[in-house]
Amino acid sequence: MRRYEEKGADVMENENKKITTGKSVAVLIVSLAVLLYLVAVLKANPGVSLILSALVAIGMGMLFGCTWKEFENDIGDTFKTMFLGMLIMMFVGILIGAWMISGTVPLLMYYGLKLLPAPIFLFASCILCCLMSLMTGTSWGTMGTIGVALLGVGEGLVIPVAYTAGAIVVGAIFGDKLSPLSDTTIMAPYVSGTDIIEHIKSMLFTTVPCLAISLILYIILGMQFHGGNIDSESYQQILITLENSFNLNPILLLPPVVVLVLIFLRKPTLPVFGIGIVLAMILAVAVQGRSLTEVLSALASGMQTSTGMDLVDSMINRGGLTSMMSSVALIIGAAMFSSGLKTTKVFEVLLDTITRYAKGRRSLLAFSYILHLVLASLTGVYLVTFSIVGPILAP
């Protein structure tokens, strides 16, 4: 019996010696070089680039003595960690499509644009972009749609473009960062082994003070602007188009209110999003007069309508399950890449290096910021940094 125990111990010892530190570093350098070349030089699809880089890491690992079974087990474990995050992303796409066709998001746009007198224009623009990012989970989408409209309104009010652009960017980024519908907000906690609500709460300590300071500055800056013409043709056309395209009933605010309340009451995310989807479907049929076929189409492919104004179309024609599939594919690639690095002990080497120098919470946070900054700058794909840094620093 003792002989078998000693033999088992020898097997485990040999297992741990398969990948040396030097080999792990080689896997990291080569796989990252391949990833950088594909993404930065060839401009290849990030999901495909991650999968190909994962194959390089797996191939090198097998040459160095790892077995496919080890990679298979680690890939399975990583997918288990990320699967719920992928499901949430798919639900988010469906939810946004439902909120668009029900008129919920268009109503928020309409109310926001109506509350734009010159003295509080910058303040209101920041809040409006913040709300839209919170409701849609996309800062770029917010800046590229309603942000463009606000720039035109700002010019009509004789407000410097730089001021307006700053308010738009601050609001959009803040809303995206704290939105439970944002892909970054969803994936960061899942790859790091924490809860999405705890993740959002932890960000409040840094983001809320920054937003508060910005809003105070926008109020002060806005006091110097009293002229200009808010009744510009494009501004009025947006409002008229929204009025003609949707029944803008205040009851349309019910889905986001219910979802946000339930989320911050720490109810399970997927059922909460399901409630938000069902409520929006009911409102789309009852308030907007949409057929069930139209509603189901919006859930699958997003809102698809022509209002007669291209800018409004770009604001509301979004969402749907298919809109999230590229992000899901990116997560799958990131999971494979992360698994390849995990099996070849790259994470252990990086963690040993970090723990050697990180002696407390602040130094650990500093390492996290630096790693994210370097990897995001090199690859241009933030989910790559999640797939590498998240598992390294996970509790």
Automatic annotation (TrEMBL):
It is found in: Cell membrane. The keyword Cell wall biogenesis/degradation does not apply. Pfam families: Na_H_antiporter (PF03553). Signal peptide: none annotated. Residues 171-395 form the Na+/H+ antiporter NhaC-like C-terminal domain. The keyword Cell membrane applies. GO terms for cellular component: plasma membrane. GO terms for molecular function: antiporter activity. It is a multi-pass membrane protein. Keywords: Antiport, Cell membrane, Membrane, Transmembrane, Transmembrane helix, Transport. Its main location: membrane. The chain crosses the membrane at residues 21-42, 48-69, 81-102, 108-134, 146-174, 203-225, 246-264, 270-287, 369-394. Belongs to the NhaC Na(+)/H(+) (TC 2.A.35) antiporter family. This is Na+/H+ antiporter NhaC.
